[in-house]
Every structure is written in structure tokens, then in C-alpha cells.
Amino acid sequence: MAKSVGIHHITAMVNDAQRNIDFYASVLGLRLVKKTINFDRPEVYHLYFGNETGNPGTVITFFPWEKQLKGRIGTGQVGVTNYVIPVGSSEFWERRLQRFAVEVESSSRFDEKYLQFTDPDGLLIELVERKEGPLNNWQIGDIHSSVAIKGFGGATLNSAQPNKTAEVLEDILGFTCVGEDAGYLRFSSDSYIGNVIDIKLSPTVRGLMGAGTVHHIAWRARDEQELQQWRSTLIEKGYYPTELKDRNYFKALYFHEEGGILFEIATDGPGFAVDEPLSNLGEKLMLPDWLEEKRTELTASLPNVQVGILEEEKE
To answer: Which SS3 state, helix, strand or coil, does residue 207 take?
Structure first.
């Protein structure tokens, strides 16, 4: 059986593109590795943030659209996005977040301590120290490799049917059940990032899709051949996966698991350097070939955005 090594990416919905960039690039210090458009709705940006090279397991993506209604985090969604930071860097992050007026709370589960906070649109985020995984060498402001976010630590899933979601993680994606603690069921995979998934066992309100919620979570596949194998497995197990879709930076398929969460499986390659050099990732609006002739029109309709150092940090 094919096994996913962990999270490929997480995609969420927000309202304001510049505010989104300010928080994830300028406050959290992630690199804007790709600025493109939603292939299904070209009038909306699709922004990708990750480590210095945008490796699978580090990338969170956003559809920023001012007109969308506020969502509600609940069942049928990813409830919390979790990032892993270097050992000994929690105090740096707590001070930094407070400096930008972000309220931080602490919690613990499975003998790990977490810093919890929300982004400007209400998405729930956690930071956890772990020694595994390479350092992230992308630097902005006073964020350097010894404290920089390394990638995903994992995610918390709010499932309407936790046992059914657990079956998908174990029997299809190949995760291993670690145990239960504080009302969470934990699973792990073989990677060093994006490899720890918690399922919240207590019921919560039904999630409503909209700004401030996660749209889907994607799991890693090595290549297109493995992706095809998963599609066959999903069909055999009674799921209804989509056909393979070309997202330019990876191939992907989508399906809803029985807990109501939209899952994607995506290939590791070809990656974000397929259409621009690594040294210039995220600097230019990148369009698929079939939309290149509309570049002038699309550029005029999209808000002007940029990555910069925020005033709080300049002081």
C-alpha cells in the first residue's frame, strides 16, 4: 500500500490579500513563493507561502477575496493549522506576536507545549517546538534560521465522524495511530514535517465555509504514478475522487472523506521553480499559459500587493 509521508499543503480562504501577505510573510516570516490566480476564478489571487524553496510540507495557500462572507470553523474542516519551530524559539515567537498585537495562549497535549493564536481573518494557528527537520534559511526582519518556522508540524481535523476520518488516515493514507490524549486522537507519518495529525474527538458546531476557514488539506504523493494508484484505491474503497488535475506546480485529485473534510492528494513535483527561478519566487504574477493573453486585464483587476517590513518592526 502506498503511504503518504504527510501534508503537502493547506489551502484557506481570507478577505484581504495585502493583510494576508503582511501577516504570513512579514509577521510569521514565511516566504511568498508564488503569486498566481485561482485557476477556477481568475479574478482572485492564489497566494502560496512556505520555506525558502517552497518544499512540500511547508506551504500554506490562500484565496483572498474581499466579497466572500465570513466562515465558521467547525466540523467538516481543518480546525487548526500547526507549524513547527526550532527548539528554544517559543519565547522569541511569543514576544514577536505580542509586539504585533497578536494575543497568544498556551496549551499542551501529548507532552508538547503549543502557542495558540489566530490570524487576522480568524484562522487558528499553533506553534510547537520540535528538533526534527532542517532549518528554514529564509530571513525577513529579525527572523533568522535559528527561530524561523520550519514548515507544518501538522493539523487538527474537526471531523463529523472521527472514526471514519481515522480509517482514511490509517487504511488509505498510511498514517500510524499514536494514541489518545486530552480529547484528541493522534496519527503520525514518516516525514519530519507535516507529519502529525490530531483528530478532535469531541463534537463541535458544523463548519461553514468562508473567510477565516480552511478550504482543504492536501497529502503528499511522490509522483503521478502513485497518485493514480491512490485514485484506484479510493474508487475501490467507495469514494469518489476527481480526475487528476494539473495545478501547474503539482498534479492533484480531490475527494470528501466521510467526516466531511475535503482532502486532496498532490504530487511533490514539479514544484514552484517550474516557471520562475528560485531566487525570484513570488515576485511576479505567474499565469498559466492559457491565461497569459489576459495578463493586462487580470493585472488591472487584482489589488496591488507587496511584501514589506511592517512599521511595528521598523521601530
So the answer is: coil
